[in-house]
Amino acid sequence: PGIASYDPGFTNTASTRSAVTYIDGEKGILEYRGYPIEQLAEKSNFLEVAYLLIHGELPSQSQYDSWVHDITFHTFVHENVKSLMQGFRYDAHPMGMLLSAVGGLSTFYPEARNIHDAETRHLQIVRMIAKMPTLGAWSFRHAQGKPYVYPDNDLGYAENFLAMLFKMSEPKYAADPRLVKALEVLFILHADHEQNCSTNAVRSVGSSQVDPYSAVSAGIGALYGPLHGGANEAVLKMLRRIGDVSNVPAFIEGVKAGNERLMGFGHRVYKNYDPRATIIKKATDDVFEVTGVNPLLKIAVELEQIALEDEYFVKRKLYPNVDFYSGLIYEALQFPPEMFTVLFAIPRTAGWLAQWLELVNDSEQKIARPKQIYTGDRGLVFPSREERW
Ligand code: CMC
């Protein structure tokens, strides 16, 4: 009964109204709260962008200072969360660990269930943005069998994360400022992307009025899936398979013949170019200045050049997307492929929480409960076992 339109994957159904992120795929525009991504990547830093996403406007100096102070104050996690993470198998996927740890935080902060109180909500938002790098870095150390490194609150957000990942001994960790800047830019680019699969998951679960830790852990679950967070890893595998610049033309011919896809190219929304890809390419140069050039870069550049001039790709409006270069950067920074998605989840937490807050404050929001089109049997008569057997 009732009329339902069939729209699997919500390709034509708006699930919400939102004032957080604007995308114009035809024109290659991405804006957070009205500010173009290019300007944010050039002039801002991740914590300021997180403030913008959450609060809807840029901070004054004192608002910025107390935001950074509060986030820095909350970077540590309860020792029992550490024990929880240490209980995982030695080869546990870091995303599985992150998902569980964030979900587990809901039990450490039971007051978080009071989502109707603005101050309580704000505290959980600060806590989650603050603790994400700590949990992400610990999931990385765990896989390496190394002791977890506690946050150093004299360091900035990205630098602290790098220290928790890579610090080897007691002396203070000092990351190259070019790497810190590149990581800040990557974090800004990944902070939000309107109603993608994981954000939709956060909103859908959040609409039950559960605490934000549980809602965000649902988002991490969605991001864990290869169709959402896994494309940059696939790009690296592809580049490695191609092996040498001389093999690029034959590979492109194979793509055109329909044998496989050129990973890191094309986008459901961006049909002109992905503005994040242009920014990331510049960050790639900066990182390689420090780490030395990833030998796979030559193959990537050649692929891009050939594809951008080839009629097959031009006709289908296929351009490099954000994942074409991000894997190369992460690999140069010595992250194993399983960590790539964690590096996505940390900044996206700001976007998830901005969208969650918008959801909670929206008086028209109902619990997410899509219609279905039923295709099964109806009104059967249950036969006794004697009749069936
Ligand atoms: N290589 C070769 N051909 C392609 C590619 C590609 N990467 N992407 C699309 N096409 C072709 C496709 O075969 C089709 O051709 P035809 O019209 O002859 O059948 C046409 O272009 C349209 O493709 P589509 O699958 O209808 O496009 P879509 O909007 O459904 O898919 C996409 C978008 C991103 C899934 C797809 O472009 C793709 O698979 N790209 C490679 C994987 C990738 O890089 N994913 C990361 C996306 S960015 C992640 C994010 O924003 O979070």
From TrEMBL:
GO CC annotation terms, alphabetical: cytoplasm
Pathway linked to the protein: Carbohydrate metabolism; tricarboxylic acid cycle; isocitrate from oxaloacetate: step 1/2
Top-level lineage group: Bacteria
Pfam families attached to this UniProt entry: Citrate_synt (PF00285)
PANTHER family: CITRATE SYNTHASE
Family, as annotated: Belongs to the citrate synthase family.
Protein name as it appears in the record: Citrate synthase
